[in-house]
Specification:
The structure is a single chain. The chain is α/β, with parallel strands linked by helices. The strands form 2 sheets. An 8-stranded mixed beta sheet has the order 5-4-1-6-7-9-8-10, with helices on both faces. The protein contains 12 helices and 10 strands. It has one domain: Rossmann fold, CATH 3.40.50.150. The relative contact order is 0.19. The longest helix has 17 residues. It is globular, with a radius of gyration of 18 Å. α3 packs antiparallel against α12 and α9 packs parallel to α10.
């Protein structure tokens, strides 16, 4: 890998500490999950069996009435506002249906994490491996997905699993969505993607990232360009200007390979940035491998 100074804030010990129970249903989840559902709908519309590997699955379902969610209040500013709006793009409709199906009353108590949405989207011939390192989160994940066919959970490091578990041929989609609690998460994402593509050159990926400052994001994208020889698209949703690197000022998705989703990604990110943000912006652009 090319050596260069990078990830200034991680090196200084400033970490995001993105424990998802505090943030379930927030603006970043709306971006990630609306895009994920759209991508899965494209990949399951036809074709050979699909294997999905989720490197940081979390617990699968989240209690928005729980202590963590109530403390942050981020779901109120995210999914609750989305459900109350009448002008959201059609690209949010599948996510709205999924959340509504989990909540039979007017109050939004439960929010589906990526594992729930993936398991709901896959066909009988598809496979899903959900990795979660924390034992307590993995136990909750296994309980949430219990009884689903073709679904396996793994209490293990998802980066390592991504290098070893996917089939060497056939269609593979990796979802990489770490909590960014460790200073080497950015490096490990690049390494895990490189290992996946060395194992299966046709694999695709969707990577979620926080946006705190431009330097960290740009350094990560440069490393991707150096190491990953695949078409890549970046979608950014900034909900505020990047003036305070101690805050999560937005989020980004990096799509590696796969169908052209630039139009729906622009609609999703644009609505989140402008409807849920203050002084934010959205953009979708391509990365060129070096």
């Amino acid at each position: 890998m090319v050596c260069r100074p990078r990830f200034r804030f991680a090196a200084a010990g400033v970490r995001l500490n993105y424990r998802h129970a505090f943030h379930a249903g927030n603006f970043a989840d709306l971006v990630k999950h609306a895009a994920l559902i759209r991508l899965l709908s494209e990949l399951t519309a036809g074709g050979s069996p699909l294997t999905v590997v989720d490197t940081h699955a979390g617990r699968g379902l989240y209690d928005l009435a729980g202590v963590e969610a109530k403390k942050s209040g981020e779901a109120e500013a995210g999914i609750v506002r989305l459900l109350r709006t009448a002008d959201a793009p059609a690209d949010f409709a599948p996510l709205i249906r999924a959340v509504t199906a989990l909540n039979r009353g007017a109050e939004v108590r439960r929010y589906p994490g990526s594992p729930w949405l993936i398991a709901e989207a896959l066909r009988p011939q598809d496979r899903y491996l959900a990795c979660e390192l924390r034992p307590e989160e993995h136990a909750a994940l296994a309980a949430a997905l219990k009884g689903r066919r073709n679904v396996r959970t793994l209490n293990a490091d998802g980066y390592t699993a991504l290098a070893n578990e996917p089939p060497a041929d056939g269609r593979v989609l990796a979802l990489i969505d770490p909590p960014f609690e460790k200073p080497d998460d950015y490096e490990r994402i690049v390494e895990a993607l490189a290992a996946l593509l060395a194992r299966n050159a046709a694999a695709q990926a969707l990577v979620w990232l926080p946006i705190k400052d431009l330097e960290t994001l740009d350094a990560f994208l440069r490393d991707l360009e150096d190491e990953i020889d695949q078409p890549m698209v970046v979608a950014e949703a900034r909900v505020r200007p990047l003036s305070d690197p101690m805050k999560m000022n937005g989020c980004a998705l990096v799509q590696v390979g796969g169908p052209d989703l630039r139009e729906p990604l622009a609609a999703i990110c644009g609505w989140v940035a402008h409807a849920l943000g203050a002084g934010g912006a959205a953009r979708v652009y391509e990365l060129a491998p070096q």
